[in-house]
Amino acid sequence: MFTKALSLALLAAVNIVSAADMPTISAVGAKFFFSNGTQYYIKGVAYQLTSLDPLTNVTQCMLDAASMADLGANSIRVYHVDSTADHDACMSAFASYGIYLWLDLDTFDSQFNQALPAWNQTQLSAFEDVLDEFQQYDNLAGVFVANEALTLLNGSDTAPFVKAAIRDVKAYRQSKNYRDIPIGYSGADIPSLRPMLQNYLACGSDPADSADFFSLNVYEWCGQSSFDGSGYNELVQNATGLQIPIFISETGCRIPKPRTFDDMDSILGKDMEDVFSGAIVYEWIEETNDYGLISYGPKVNDMTNTAALDGYIRTGTPMPVSPDYSNLKGHWATLHPTGVALSAYSASASSLTPIACPSSTVNGWIVDPTQSLPSVGQTIDLAATSTGGLGGSATGNAKPSSTAKKGDAAAMHTGNEVAGMGVGLVGVMLGFLFWL
Ligand SMILES: *[C@@H]1O[C@H](CO)[C@@H](O)[C@H](O)[C@H]1NC(C)=O
Ligand SMILES: *[C@@H]1O[C@H](CO)[C@@H](O)[C@H](O)[C@H]1NC(C)=O
Ligand SMILES: *[C@@H]1O[C@H](CO)[C@@H](O)[C@H](O)[C@H]1NC(C)=O
Ligand SMILES: *[C@@H]1O[C@H](CO)[C@@H](O)[C@H](O)[C@H]1NC(C)=O
Ligand SMILES: *[C@@H]1O[C@H](CO)[C@@H](O)[C@H](O)[C@H]1NC(C)=O
């Protein structure tokens, strides 16, 4: 009885503020703006309670959203959702607390595989299904086509496939007349790779081919550090001139304990607020990796307890991990960057020019920025790669990437756009094959 009454009360509360009443978020130049013209800075938490979709249980969503609002969060990041589930109640629950969603479009069976770089129709269709489901919610802030698809410098041959995914999901968004939901990428914490990847995804003269934003997972500010000591100053230097928004999609370091979150003063303060659009803290739930801001109860050793996984309870009332939670809350309570009004910024935004594409280096960043992006269905020709892909030239009568981009989305479903392509087409300094 009590539970039912509580659920009904929660649902009633949820209905008061619908997800449809929130200002939407879009990328303009190098910044994000609410549709009312105020600049948007992310104060986020990574929210993934198990490997399953966390946005289907409204009772749980309400409990967590209320606690996140107390923490001062305005955003969550979710890594895995089920596009066939109903998300209305949870999206409204978060909306009722002013909380936006950053969502990974990929999941375990649709994500990129660095060992065999490819971009195929199965992946694209899965990404489209997720976008179809979530585009209806005004508090969808943006989506990632991948998280940490490249983790090794020698994995740079995956970058063209990531950029192809961005191109194709953007084309799909336009074809469906969805609003300009920002579509971007979340990069791994690899300083030797990151600046090239960031600039590669952003560069090029046709905005339809480039990311709407870049974001990076950063674990560099540990314990007592500083803007200069942490290397965050280099993050700003390396993002200067980037014509799209950039933010931290995961932070931060948890050793030494406790986490003090002093980096928030730089990210959301004068050190970085001109270039960065905030950060998402990793992560909400305390689990084996020990990054949690809250727990749902003490660790359990009873492996028959179905509410627990790996000894951690996964549902219930969130309880702050102390003092980490209050440390973060304390920082966020004092940080209210206002940035610039859209009306004052839009003229200069439209005069921004794309950042230069990174040049390729032997044994380093091997992507040739002058080569066209792969089409749906292409994969790496490992043989061509190992027998001297470097310096290889484009062969075959491939249509330029703009064909897939500007053609109607239906063409992609027929696979027509790959017809006539020769095996051995080089879209990077590597060979591509395509799936048949
Ligand atoms: C725009 O909306 C945001 C989010 O609701 C709010 O914080 C901000 O104050 C609003 N700005 C204006 C000018 O109303
Ligand atoms: C498409 O890519 C996914 C993810 O890499 C892979 O699991 C799947 O087997 C591929 N499908 C086809 C038809 O090639
Ligand atoms: C890439 O580098 C990793 C280690 O840094 C290595 O294990 C892997 O074999 C390399 N891959 C290729 C294709 O050379
Ligand atoms: C900034 O870019 C330089 C040059 O590419 C690179 O060596 C450095 O590691 C980058 N710094 C960070 C923090 O990403
Ligand atoms: C939904 O969340 C509530 C609150 O934590 C929990 O009691 C319930 O078991 C959850 N329901 C499902 C189906 O997981």
Automatic annotation (TrEMBL):
Swiss-Prot/TrEMBL keywords: Glycoprotein, GPI-anchor, Lipoprotein, Membrane, Signal, Transferase, Transmembrane, Transmembrane helix
Spans traversing the lipid bilayer: 418-435
Domain of life: Eukaryota
Location(s) in or outside the cell: Cell membrane
Any one GO molecular function term: 1,3-beta-glucanosyltransferase activity
The protein's enzyme class: transferase
Major location category of this protein: membrane
Topology within the bilayer: Lipid-anchor; GPI-anchor
UniProt record, GO biological process: fungal-type cell wall (1->3)-beta-D-glucan biosynthetic process; fungal-type cell wall organization
EC number: 2.4.1.-
Record's GO cellular component terms: plasma membrane; side of membrane
Family statement drawn from the similarity comment of this UniProt entry: Belongs to the glycosyl hydrolase 72 family.
UniProt function note: Splits internally a 1,3-beta-glucan molecule and transfers the newly generated reducing end (the donor) to the non-reducing end of another 1,3-beta-glucan molecule (the acceptor) forming a 1,3-beta linkage, resulting in the elongation of 1,3-beta-glucan chains in the cell wall.
Protein's name in the database: 1,3-beta-glucanosyltransferase
Originating species: Letharia columbiana
